[in-house]
Amino acid sequence: MANFNGSGGTDFPWRRLLYPFAIVGAVVVGIWGLVAALVWLLNAVAHTATVIAGTAGPIGVGGITLKLFRSDR
Question: Is the pTM here over 0.85, yes or no?
Answer without folding.
Answer: no
